[in-house]
Amino acid sequence: IEVLAKNPKLLHSNIQKISRVLRTHTLPTQLDTLWLLSRIPRHPKLALALWPLLQQTLKTQTTAKLEKTLQVLLSLFPRNHKDSLFQGLAMLQHPKPSVRRAAVRLLSRDKPQNPGWVTLVMQLLKDPNWRVRREAVQTLGVWGPYAKKAEKAVQACLQDSSYAVSYASQFALLKIRKK
Hints:
The chain is an all-alpha fold.
């Protein structure tokens, strides 16, 4: 895989072999494979080819592997690439809380490109899983003034049943209100 990671054309022709490794080998081997894939220079066509394969690995039960898979998916796209945004935003609706949480965390690495991002992340403030809610609050805080329209929703999170969410809300509000 190290050789493949250095040559995207060769990698593209070996996607089925990578798929077998991600499905059949031990977890450490799978994580190593994902790590090596994340070392590939940003390449949108390759990312779109790997998308179905990596989406299969999202069915696993291991949180570390879920998060690493999402990192690989989004790292293969250039920042702000339209397909990267689409795939990342689609993961916000995933049935697994760990996938939703990882997707929000990865989206926080860029400023929101349109108000729709803020709206989607605001919806996660009502997620049943407190970890997803905390990650959503933290992401809105990272976006700071860009997330101004989420201020009231984040303020409502101060009363969240989870201490971690209400605590994160305090800091997020400071960043959102910062001029």
